[in-house]
Design goal:
Blueprint: H1 2-27, E1 34-38, H2 45-61, E2 65-69, H3 76-83, E3 91-96, H4 97-106, H5 114-117, E4 118-127, E5 130-133, H6 142-151, E6 157-160, H7 166-178, E7 183-186, H8 190-199, E8 204-207, H9 213-216, E9 223-227, E10 254-261, H10 266-279, H11 283-291, E11 294-296, H12 301-321
Parallel strand pairs: 1-2, 1-3, 6-7, 6-8
Antiparallel strand pairs: 3-10, 4-10, 4-11, 5-8, 5-9
Helix pairs in contact: 2-10, 4-12
Length: 327
């Protein structure tokens, strides 16, 4: 009996020590460099937002934040790397609609589980995707694009930032509604897709934000065909939405958020949420995001979790109803 009591006491002491050590580590957070995973190539909206947030958090936390780009699979590779990281607050990530709300229904086997493996911290921004075309494309308006696609089934190529991204799903959804057959050419992010679109390598792109349009449409280097959200964009106020052009309710807003591995201490999550929310209200970040067609927006962890759930249900219904498959 005495031995059992000693063992129990020893276990209790060890548990208490572990709790005390964990609490001390949380209180001193951060005391070393933090890594921020961006799941796309450098230069796109996710990368720009990630680096902007990283700089502000680094200044506020007094620790360096190193941005690491892990591109591929529409953001899933980077999100998976985050999900498998140590939940100590020293690995964070930018994730988005494709990895958190679309992938669970699009892929039969996903290497991570959003609810089990990901801890929401805050929404970061909501982008306005658009359909853009090279000047050489044989159409100038949305209606002309639809007519051309119907007359030339299986020949009109379009680029996206990757398989399973919001622009890809928007293209598949529109193709189903309009009865057209487009050819998907996925890239590893917005930046490389935009480069080929500008060069005329590909005639049309479903872009994840208006970062390209805002720079090149006015100069005539690209044609804006339509906006993929329910409302028009202030960057291109004359460009109509798909919803206006015969498909009411069509909305493929592209959102990005800050996340951590599941089981990251709640005190750290709360601290990062508070600092992120404050940063997203600064005129500098609001203006920088607006330049790439992104509205800076924060949410509490609970609000973000509920938003992800709502978006997952929305896209699951579209994927199932239109039999959309990952390529």
């Amino acid at each position: 009996m005495e031995t059992i009591l000693k063992n129990l006491c020893g276990a209790a002491v060890l548990a208490l020590c572990s709790i005390t050590a964990a609490s001390a580590a949380t209180e001193s957070y951060p005391n070393k460099t933090i890594t921020l995973i961006v799941p796309f190539a450098p230069g796109g909206p996710a990368d720009i937002m990630g680096r902007t947030i990283a700089k502000n958090l680094a200044d506020d936390l007094g620790q360096a934040i190193v941005v690491v780009n892990k591109a591929g699979a529409g953001g899933n590779i980077g999100t998976d790397a985050l999900a498998k990281s140590n939940p100590d607050g020293y690995t964070l990530g930018i994730s988005l609609i494709s990895s958190l709300a679309i992938a669970p229904s699009l892929y039969s086997k996903l290497p991570y589980d959003v609810k089990r493996d990901i801890a929401p911290i805050s929404m970061v921004g909501i982008a306005t995707p658009a359909i853009l075309a090279h000047p050489s494309a044989p159409f100038n308006t949305f209606d002309e694009m639809i007519r051309y696609a119907k007359a030339h089934p299986g020949t009109l190529n379009y680029s996206t930032p990757g398989v399973g991204t919001a622009p890809h799903l928007a293209a598949e959804y529109l193709s189903s509604l309009a009865g057209i057959d487009l050819v998907h050419v996925p890239y590893k992010g917005t930046a490389p897709a935009s480069q080929d679109l500008l060069a005329g390598v590909i005639p049309m792109g479903f872009e994840s934000s208006l970062v390209t349009a805002s720079k090149f449409v006015d100069s005539g280097k690209l044609k804006a065909i339509a906006v993929l959200t329910k409302d028009r964009s202030d960057l291109l106020p004359k460009v109509p939405t798909v919803s206006e052009l015969g498909y009411p309710g069509f909305d493929a807003a592209n959102w990005f958020c800050l996340v951590a591995p599941a089981n990251t201490p709640p005190q750290i999550i709360e601290k990062l949420n508070r600092l992120t929310a404050a940063a997203l209200k600064t005129p500098e970040i609001v203006a920088k995001f607006a330049e790439i067609g992104v509205v800076a927006q924060s949410m509490s962890p609970a609000e973000l979790a509920a938003y992800i759930d709502k978006e997952t249900k929305h896209w699951r219904e579209i994927i199932v109803a239109n039999n959309i498959k990952a390529e």
